[in-house]
Amino acid sequence: MEHIRMPKVENVRLLDRLSSRRAVVGTLYLTATHVIFVENGSETRKETWVLHSQISSIEKQATTATGCPLLIRCKNFQVIQLVIPQERDCHDVYISLIRLARPVKYEELYCFSFNPKLDKEEREQGWKLVDLNEEYNRMGVPNNYWQISDVNRDYGVCDSYPTEVYVPKSATAHIIVGSSKFRSRRRFPALSYYCKGNNASICRSSQPLSGFSARCLEDEQMLQAIRKANPGSDFIYVVDTRPKLNAMANRAAGKGYENEDNYSNIKFQFIGIENIHVMRNSLQKMLEVCELKSPSMSDFLWGLENSGWLKHIKAIMDAGIFIAKAVAEEGVSVLVHCSDGWDRTAQVCSVASLLLDPYYRTMKGFMVLIEKDWISFGHKFNHRYGNLDGDPKEISPVIDQFIECVWQLMEQFPCAFEFNERFLIHIQHHIYSCQFGNFLCNSQKERRELKIKERTYSLWAHLWKNRADYLNPLYRSDHSQTQGTLHPQITPCNFLYKFWSGMYNRFEKGLHPRQSVTDYLMAVKEETQQLEEELEVLQERLANLQKSQSGDNKVKSKQQDRSKQTGLYTSNNSLANTPQEYSNDLKSFPSRSPSQGDEEDSALILTQDNLKSSDPDLSANSDQESGVEDLSCRSPSGGGCLPSEDSGKDSDEAVFLAG
Amino acid sequence: LLRSSQPLTGPNRRRCREDEKLLGSILDEGERGFIIDTRSAQAAKQARMGGGGTEPKSSYPQWRRLHRALDRGRQLQESFVRLVEVCAEPTLSMDRWLSRLDGSRWLSHVKAALSTACLAAQCLDREDSNVLVHGAEGTDTTLLVTALAQLILDPSCRTLEGFQGLLEREWIQAGHPFQLRCARSASSHARGKQEAPLFLLFLDCVWQLSRQFPLSLEFGERLLLTLFDNAYASSYGTFLCNNEKERSLCKVKESTHSLWAWLNQPQEKPKFLNPLYSHNPLVIWPSVEPQSIQLWQGLFLRWIRPSQHLDEAWVEIQRLVEG
């Protein structure tokens, strides 16, 4: 609390980022873990909560007549524009937030104070939900070809690897240690995925320290061992996910890639995914496009293309497809690496696994996949997502890209995943929120040292508890799409990559389809189930009555009105039925509905009892025609808020602003 | 909501008492109305040289004029052709796909059309004002705007039957020159001077509405594709000729079958229904932000994109809804 200069500021305006005329006045609070804005007004005291961990940047803008603007950008793509009346208050808030958003000690993070009111046993159970040993067993290892190795039991060989890794049967401890000395960060080749159908495997490592001509017998033996673990093939692919130029440049630094001459029976392949700096810049550029005020179609499309974002997503996907094909169709094992084997390698291995194995497309399986290829294999969550204040050059949206690949696949294969878009968005949110302990630190070793499992809670348990919200109604475990390998179309396929407005414009509800097919179908499914259960009960009753043949005919038949969930969907309708601002292209006029906190997300993400979920406050604004006519809408009561006949009983309003 | 063609003001600023009276009679004392002119202010002014023009404020004092330039004619056809070309290019890299897509300007036209229709709807619904829409001839962008506005405002237009009625009223009987506009489509080398995909633009806008409000239209994409097909080449007489007069002269009703009759047959109709439909009595206001407007892949990539998994999804939806 010592960093908070000003715990409370009154008369702060929260601007609608898109409609500068709409602003709500309220009070701003700073706590040890959150920034909270509470709207004034008797009826709906709508609250906007932002975790400090989510804050990506804070911008103090030039003071105007109305006050001092403060722009908060979040890692989950929420953007909050505040106007604080007094400049010195604004400055104090700014300074406080700067410090609060850049913690230096892990103990400052929310997960250490978050209390979902579970007992010790429940906390423990939560952490046991995802068990990697079970997972490897499910895959089919250990077996004749693969064994578990504890050579790293004290993190003595590689401090960013887990204590238990799976290696080929013929890889002795000596080979593993030798190979680790020849790999960047000691990250030796280890098993990521085993395909029991044909013994092909996906292994992962970092780049070899080969320089221009160095060799290492043990490393070569390691790759041989991987090849021998798959009797169905006489070679393995070695896939370097970097652009060829970068890999070659690494040779000058004593690193590099595998020389086909030195390693017998390998086929080497570059796949060319750019590095973390390129990706960081790409995301930055794309977010700038998202922040444009009333962009034209050209502004948007050109901006999106210039960012290169979708191109990068496609590159990751293409790599995953290549590897999945090698394993499933050719039955050839693949060794994947990039530079350090913890970014692009993780992305590509997990995409490939998702394509190959339908288990990872289930909710549980997906959590297992992230636990395996990201958490256990030492993806640097702290550095990449800024748990603690660190080097800004380490920040990069690596897992965000993987999550987007999953979404792109969900769009192409709507029946193939057990979970829905909301699941992905919430996972992304929590990677940055530090509300749970799963994504802290840079390695398993660091997490054990901090005793994360004893001091924090697991996100997986939380998501699992709420799994009804994350289901995909179109998923059937016995459906053609859910069996076996997914085969995304490779070419032509540019059009298959869509801009994910659900993620990058997450808090701008007006932009998305205003009626949720997922929610509707889930409700239909639920009702169908309920009706079926009731039908069973009634049929039983009928059977009993017929048996007893008594004259007692008190069968209660419930009148079920199958008129589809009209009660459920009036709220959706009123959400849908709120006008945007339809403006002349000449004037830079926002034509979107106001951005608001995501009500359902707030309820699920912040398990605070006092959190008020609220209806998004969408309103109509007058249109303006520049050059010819000023279309000002006047309300009879002069500027007040009137409920329009469109709005349902929920609080949509038509705001008529006097010209 | 009214529609017309442009007033023949001409370079000498002619007046027509009857026209002024007609427009005047629509509005009550002190009421104001809006005229949405689908030409730019400049184009409308220039039209005077050709004998056309706009309604001068002095002669139509209760009406306020708004200009929303919507492309039509040659420009729109070129846009369509370019889009089809981009979609058909097999070697186009991801680096260039979006800029080439934008280069066709098609999505910009969709955005502009929807925005204008929403403006008209807003005037009617939020301003409680009468609206007159016209461009030059009143047969192209005018109909685009009035038909879309009705879809946005009126839930009865969103039923299968209501939609057919809308098409019949606002496109066919209103005299959209289908024969001239839908002669050859995008791939032909012959470029008819009068060829322009206004009706396709309308269908695209309807598709955008269905994407943003998936529960609010009683019909699905299949109907829109069928309408597109039949506008250009049809076994039925519904889209023949350019107006009711021509159809009468050609004895279309006596010599051909109606598309609507076929669609509404009990064995055909279910194919065109949207299983997610649930009557929505309210106005539906679409977002016209670039993120909200998407390429209608079902039409423009109809033969290119893999549809199998999407079809399976619809089968699953149907199954769920039928319970």
UniProtKB/TrEMBL annotation, chain A:
* Gene Ontology molecular functions: phosphatidylinositol-3,5-bisphosphate phosphatase activity; phosphatidylinositol-3-phosphate phosphatase activity
Its subcellular locations are: Cytoplasm; Endomembrane system
Q: Where is the composition biased (Polar residues)?
A: 565-596
Compositionally biased tracts (Basic and acidic residues): 553-564
User: Which CDD domains has this protein been placed in?
Assistant: PH-GRAM_MTMR7, PTP-MTMR7
Which superkingdom is the protein from?
Eukaryota
Name the protein family.
Belongs to the protein-tyrosine phosphatase family. Non-receptor class myotubularin subfamily.
The protein's name is MTMR7 protein
Its source organism is Rhipidura dahli
From TrEMBL, chain B:
Matching InterPro entries: Myotubularin, Myotubularin-like_Pase_dom, Prot-tyrosine_phosphatase-like
Q: Where is the Myotubularin phosphatase domain?
A: 1-300
User: What's an example Gene Ontology biological process for this entry?
Assistant: phosphatidylinositol dephosphorylation
What molecular functions are annotated in GO for this chain? protein phosphatase binding
Got a GO cellular component term for this one? cytoplasm
Pfam families, alphabetically? Myotub-related (PF06602)
Protein family per UniProt: Belongs to the protein-tyrosine phosphatase family. Non-receptor class myotubularin subfamily.
Q: What is this protein called?
A: MTMR9 protein
Q: Which gene encodes it?
A: Mtmr9_0
